[in-house]
Amino acid sequence: MATKRRGGFGARRKRNMEVKAVVDLGADSSDDDLPEEVTFEKAKADAVRSMRNALETVKRDKELLKEKRRKRQELFQQQKKRKLLSEDMLEEIESAYTKKGKPLDSEEQEKEESEEDEDSEEEVVNARLKESYKAVRLKDQIDANTRQESASDFIRSRLYGPGTNRTTTNQMLSLKNKTGNNKTAAVQFVNKNWGSENKGKAEKLKKRWVHSQTVVAN
């Protein structure tokens, strides 16, 4: 009996150890699988990154090729324009010769150059005249002058006409000298520069009026 119990206990213990070994082996195998999954994800990310870089490289190469073609086309157009320009210049040089095939004389050449210089000077003068002068009708100018004169007459009548208490500085100072406690002569007799100043102003106004009439007549 004791021997059988001992044998049964030993067999049960051996079975439990085998089950534990199987469990430990399964745990070890699951732990070994985890790094493989991480490695696959990393490889997938690397593959996606490489594909993206390749697409960007292809796109960049296409853009560079397109830019080279555009520059080549522009260079071709420029060369074509230069070629046409050279042909036009040759035609102008050929037209500079006479119908008999002889070159122009020096006198005729100087005459043409002088005419070109005169034309250029006239163009410059016309451009300056356009900037500094403005063409108007004589009727409009006369109407404008008439309106200005009417406005100045109106202002003068309102400021110095009858019914106003305004007076000139000369009259005011003369009246003050006559009615003051110390009576003296009129201001034009006391201040000798008074008459010369008024005379100079009158001359300036006269010259300005003559100049305006000359401009209107022209």
Automatic annotation (TrEMBL):
Segments of this protein annotated with the region Disordered: 94-125
Domain U3 small nucleolar RNA-associated protein NOL7 C-terminal: start-end pairs: 133-195
InterPro entries: NOL7_C
Keyword Metal-binding: no
Coiled-coil zones: 48-78
Cellular-component GO terms for this entry: nucleolus
Single GO term (MF): RNA binding
Keyword entries, A-Z: Coiled coil
Keyword Coiled coil: yes
Taxonomic superkingdom: Eukaryota
Pfam family, one: NUC129
Composition bias, Acidic residues: 106-124
PANTHER family, per the entry: NUCLEOLAR PROTEIN 7 (PTHR32337)
Protein name: Nucleolar protein 7-like
